[in-house]
Amino acid sequence: MPFWIELIAGLLSFVIAAVCGKLLIPFLHKLKFGQPIKVEFGPKWHKNKQGTPTMGGIMFIISTVISVSVGYIIYRMTSLVVLGEESAAASNAAMRLLCCVVFCILFGVMGFIDDFTKVSRNNNDGLSPIQKIIIQVVISVAWLLAMRYFGDTDTRINLGFASFDIGWFYYPLMVLVIIYLTNAVNLTDGIDGLCGTVTMVNMLLYTTIFVILSNAEMTLLTISVAGGCLGFLVWNFHPAKCFMGDTGSMFLGAAVTAAGLVTHQHLVLVLIALVYIIEALSVVIQVSYFKYTKKKYGEGRRIFKMTPIHHHFEMSGFSEYKIVITFSLFSLIVGIGGILLTLFQSEI
């Protein structure tokens, strides 16, 4: 795909998301769709963010869908192939792109329901954990089956230095990966600009990887998500005028996961998603250690000052700007390692 098409898709997504904020934020204020804040889920000074409009992820969801559609139409028009006369391979590639877009939207819809439930009740009690898991499993299974139907039949686990086929066991394992990563991205959305910036970096990394892999269709999705994140950050940098909410974080989680699984380079996925993985792992470690010490000593003890780990840094004196920059640079550095690994494997 010509670079200028990807550039148009990314810039278009940025502009649409940024302009959407100008219209959406006053509308959310009017509806009183403000974020409920509980200090037990973050530093006590986050209480000042009470009432900041949430569901801002709608900005980059709209921009991504429009930009992918426009980019694909331009791509088809410039490829001089009449719609309906393309090869089966090209048709399947287009359908896989559509499956990924729908997959992301469905996770965004689930997040929207969760956000709407929270603001309507004016507390942090949205969908129950079991409700979320059930919905996530259904969406994940449907997406994996659809991707297989449209030609993605590879069931190998690729760790760079080794690759092995695990057959049908691949699918339940990937369902677990999807659930972990999408919720890990959700946990990363805890301070102004963090999730949007880290995800923008990761989507740009994946755009480079898909260029290396000659997957033109998926570059449209990743560059559009990156542009949409940048447009959203116009309104989300500290002090945030709007939060993405679960609407946005679940959409982004699905985008990160879909991009990673489509490449079938699982070690690369781990490297690019390492910030999210660490964020979620910090919660698991904290809760497990607290329960263990409470059982053994009669009182729960903590390893971190607060989790997810970005709150630990925040309570250690890091500003929100510094955390965003540090986490994003870390994601960029390990992500470049993923690009180098992709280049190495493509030359073998």
Question: How are the SSEs placed, and which strands pair?
Answer:
Layout lengths: L2 H29 L26 H21 L9 H34 L7 H21 L6 E3 L4 E3 L4 H19 L5 H19 L3 H21 L8 H19 L2 H7 L1 H24 L11 H7 L4 H28 L1
Antiparallel strand pairs: 1-2
Helix pairs in contact: 1-2, 1-7, 2-7, 3-4, 3-8, 4-5, 5-8, 5-10, 6-7, 6-8, 6-12, 8-9, 9-12
Task: Describe this entry's structure for a reader.
This protein is mostly helical and 348 residues long. The protein has one domain. It is built from 12 helices and 2 strands; from the N terminus they run H-H-H-H-E-E-H-H-H-H-H-H-H-H. A two-stranded antiparallel ribbon has the order 1-2. Helix 8 (245-263) runs antiparallel to helix 9 (266-272). The relative contact order is 0.15. The mean pLDDT is 90.
Give descriptors for this structure.
348 residues, mainly alpha
Spatial order of strands in the largest sheet: 1-2
Q: Structurally, how many domains make up the residues?
A: 1
Structural classification? mainly alpha
Rg calculated over all Cα atoms:
20 Å
The proportion of residues forming helix, as a percent range, comes to over 70%
What is the β-strand count?
Answer: 2
Envelope shape: globular
Strand content: under 5%
State the end-to-end distance: 23 Å
How is the main sheet built? 2 strands, antiparallel
State the low-pLDDT regions, or none. Answer: none
DSSP helix count?
12
Along the chain, the helix and strand elements come as HHHHEEHHHHHHHH
Q: What is the mean predicted local confidence, pLDDT? A: 90
